[in-house]
Fold this protein.
Amino acid sequence: MAETVHAEPPLIAGEAVRVGEDGRPTLIGSVCSDCATRVFPPVPLCPECMREDMAQVALGRSGRLYSYCTVHVAPRGWSVPYIAGYVDLPEGVRVFTHVVDAAEEQLSMEMEVELTTAVLGNDADGEAFSSYAFRPRRPEGDDA
Ligand SMILES: [Zn+2]
């Protein structure tokens, strides 16, 4: 199977995620210059005060799992089943995300999770695509 080495599958999250030179992803949200509300994904209009003075802000890489469930039916291209969940970040932002590297029975409410990237499906040409996802937090230094 490993006859060709491909580059990392392209990220489909556009402006919402950046991958640093160390390979670690960061979520990019918006922060309101007026009331400091932070949101993800980035938006041009503050949902709290309706001002349009939003700046980009890098969000934390870890948070707590607020809720999750296994999805068995998805639009064409997405690999199923997968676990969808909400992750609460320390900045007060709730992120809708895939949860990877764990079976549903290994997850629990409020558990610590960390940001990663994962292959989530294939596009119309059959090429794999990836996006941000969260996984159960690993001990420091365990980068496997
Ligand atoms: Zn605001």
In short: The mean pLDDT is 90. Residues 69 and 83 are 6 Å apart (CA to CA). The two ends are 21 Å apart (CA to CA).
